[in-house]
Design brief:
Chain B: It holds the Pfam family SPL. Chain B: This is Radical SAM domain protein. Chain B: One of its GO terms (molecular function) is 4 iron, 4 sulfur cluster binding. Chain B: InterPro entries: rSAM_sf, SPL. The complex is a heterodimer of chains A (279) and B (336). Chain A has 279 residues and is an alpha/beta fold. Chain A has seven helices and ten strands. In chain A, 39% of the residues lie in helices and 21% in strands. Chain A has a five-stranded mixed barrel. In chain A, a hairpin with a 6-residue loop joins strand 2 and strand 3. The longest helix of chain A has 29 residues. Chain B has a single domain, classed as Alpha-Beta Horseshoe (pyruvate-formate lyase- activating enzyme). Chain B contains 13 helices and 18 strands. In chain B, helix 10 runs parallel beside helix 13. The N terminus of chain B is likely disordered. The chains are: A alpha/beta (279), B alpha/beta (336). The structure holds iron/sulfur cluster (SF4). The site of iron/sulfur cluster (SF4) has 9 residues of chain B, from strand 7.
Chain lengths: 279, 336
Amino acid sequence: MIYLITAFYPEAKAFIDYFGLKKLYEPSKFQIFSGDKILLIVSGEGILQAAIATTFALTKFGANDKCIALNIGICGAKKKSLSKGDVLLCNKIINHYSKRTFYPDILITHQMKEVSLETFPFPIKKDTFTDEIEGDIVDMEGAGFFEAALSFLAPHNVHCIKIVYDFLDYEKIEPQEVTNLVKQCIPFIENFINTLVDMNLVFCTNIIEEEKIREVVEKLKSSLRLTTSMTYQLEKLLKSYIIRHENLPENISEFFNINVNSKKEGKQYFEKLKKILIS
Amino acid sequence: MKNLKKSLLAKHFSHIYIEREIISHPITKIILDKFPNSVIVEIDNYKEVFSRPRQNYKLQEISKKLILAKKKGEFLYPGPPLCHDFGYNHFYYTSLIFNCIFSCDYCFLKGMYSSANIVIFVNIEDYFKEIDSVLKRHPLYLSVSYDTDIMALEKIVPFFSMFIEYTTSRKDLTIEIRTKTADYEVLQSLRPSENIILAWTLSPQEIIEKFEHKTPSLSARLETIKKAIENGWKVRLCFDPILFTKNWKEIYLKFLDQVFKQIEPFKITDISIGVFRIPKDYLKRMKKVFVNEITLFPYEEENGIFTYPDELKKEIMEFFLSKLIQFIPESKIFTI
Ligand code: SF4
């Protein structure tokens, strides 16, 4: 599942249209939209809201090794070299309030600029904010989202993608303009998501046929009357044999039709089988 | 999803994380000059990146990042019981780098660290200071390529050559540098010294292909060893770990023949041999990430160490030793 977390509806709107997402009527305070393997949640403004919405989504709809969570939205830029509409991947996310810092694992190539993001608990305007801003860009959600998502997912599957809206001097946010800016950036974001999905698929697939092993274990368990600990051992031995020889030993079927009469007899056969499997 | 495009995985060291404190250290500068296109990310402490929760070691191996840090606290550690001490009383190891550019399936680093990224502690001068102070008390036998392969990393950070130069002028210090590299260029401008042992880990080509990913071939390693010996370097051979795998007897037999056809046995300083063994906790962690022949084997535990069942271990060691002594006197062989 790909989880998209946006702060505002105008940001979400671009994805809803592009991916054809449908509103999900889940009892919660959040607006949720879903589509083919995508779930979008609108968190509302602020670090805490982002953390709650992320936690809610990942708890309610599940998180596994291959799930991806992205916080996408507009930001203010401190860096002069950035332009309005630039789509940015954050390689460092600073929580201004707690001073905690987070680092996504960037294992794939992408076409976005990389920056550091600093998340503030209040809006930042350069003429009124006198402290040092550490990040290249600022927002009000990133760090909350990141810390929450990291409790469920690996750091290579959690990312903040931000789009420059202003230079810490905005007066009013124009919803239509926000939607348009996000829309323009979707090709970059989609490409990034696809690459992540591919990487997770290719590199996290288990190579052992668990089904096949379970079947053999079940057969041997009853024919040799194996104890729980012997069954566990057998499973390990079979996996190890298969990975060395790419198959089961030829003579294993001989053990399928034995019907042992005592524990002692079962143990003898088990030892014999063990010898074959450690070879 | 629409427009599925295959993009690429990021290159190794696409990102370099640097502790703010050592941003202008000369070693940092040397390293950064080699990666002009990498993204630099400033950090406060290397653990923020290296010790993140839920990192995927396996995935990180396909795109390793560099983390440059300053080592604090201890610089030398007593040699672990799983390693040979070669008869030295004061056997220590030191860790200038965590992790390696190679990727051996059996490497204990995969169970020791939660990240595959490479940490380089740039403040080598502090290590030298600490070694100097220990040398005032007693001689020292030091393994300097313990959590990594520093010779293989020489082109990224020149610690190997710096250590060689430093050790040459300290007669009470003996260093062992363990490696799988085949890059002779690294040695070319350096002078050998009596108290420096270059220890090459050798494995049969079949084992290299199956388990020692990205390492140089056996013949390339042998070529380099030959040149090193000819040029006066003391060379130790490490047949460690010997692995149990399909047709292991044939494989190791052919291997010994190949090794000693190229290397004159009497020119070798000594040899160490041992079967695969690993601390229990490390194996447990490796199993969670890697499903392969090494992690899946049903090892037996002895004092917190997993290794082959007794009978098998004995069979492997006896077999290997009996063949090895046909080439080299037993007095030169260290067994663990
Ligand atoms: S060369 Fe040594 S340190 Fe590097 S991965 Fe292989 S076993 Fe580990």
